[in-house]
Amino acid sequence: MPVAFSAGMQAFLLACAREQREATAKQQGHSRGFCMVCHYLAYFESGANFSLLPSIVKRANRPHLIEMNKAYKIPESVLVVIHTVQLDVLLMERAGHPGFWQSVTGSKDLDDEPLRLTAMREVAEETGIQIGESGDVDASGAVAVSDAQVSSDNLQDWHLSTVFEIYLSWRQRYAPGITHNTEHVFSLLVPAGIAITLEPREHVRQVWLPYREAAEKCFSESNAAAILQLPQRVVEASQDKNMCRR
């Protein structure tokens, strides 16, 4: 069964992640500073002028988060297919890449970050959807506690991963010599009409489409293949829940 992290456990894991990131930054000779608006901890190269910060970045939960000189991306990520009971799928168009439509994607922040936590964080950052405590929302996804909150029960780990070659234009984000990424697939059932708040630095438009049309619109072959598996995965998830109730 998928592991559902309570709000307290999520806070604990994030605190541990911050401590580890601070220790790593110190080892690399970096200094630390805070976003002057929301006071979220960020790291800078030694000697950086904290008064010359870039324009404010909008983030889910941390609307003014600013991070400079981030470490290389970890070549392990999640893909989260967000869908309704009717199998309508949310797609978003990448900023700066017209016609590049995709589901929620994102890399782990730390090597030991649980993939489920990565999925929850990326969903919040890219769509504004908050994944709450189990039981906050009924299993059908028909009712939400707020306009943009769903139950952690609705986040399904498919235990499916794909290794693909990283696009040349994006390889500079990774350490030298890294050419491939491992992507782990999840799905998230949400109520129809749920409020979506895009991160404008990442995506500029959104659309809900029947799953077959959504698969055709995706620029990523692995994303399209995952969407086409959605009906089967939904049936399997329903069967698993029924077995757990017995």
Notes on the protein architecture:
By secondary structure, the chain is α+β, with helices and mostly antiparallel strands. Helix content is 26%, strand content 27%. The chain is built from five helices and eleven strands. The chain has a four-stranded mixed β-sheet with strand order 6-3-10-9, sandwiched between helices. It has a three-stranded antiparallel β-sheet with strand order 5-4-11. Strands 1-2 form a two-stranded antiparallel ribbon. Strand 1 and strand 2 form a beta hairpin. Helix 3 runs antiparallel to helix 4 (221-228). The longest helix is centred in the first third of the chain and has 21 residues, at 7-27. The protein is globular, with a radius of gyration of 18 Å. The two termini are 14 Å apart. Residues 28-70 and 135-145 have low confidence and may be disordered.
The total of helices stands at: 5
Q: Tell me about the biggest sheet?
A: 4 strands, mixed
What is the first-to-last residue Cα distance? 14 Å
Classification by helices and strands: alpha+beta
Rg, Cα atoms, Å: 18 Å
Helix content: 25-40%
- Listing every helix as H and every strand as E from the N terminus to the C terminus, the arrangement reads HEEEEEEHEEEEEHHH
Q: Average pLDDT value?
A: 76
Poorly predicted spans: 28-70, 135-145
Order of strands side by side in the largest beta sheet?
Answer: 6-3-10-9
Shape: globular
Q: What proportion of the residues form beta strands (DSSP E)?
A: 25-35%
- Total E-strand runs: 11
Compact summary:
The protein is of the alpha+beta class. The protein has five helices and eleven strands, in the order αββββββαβββββααα.
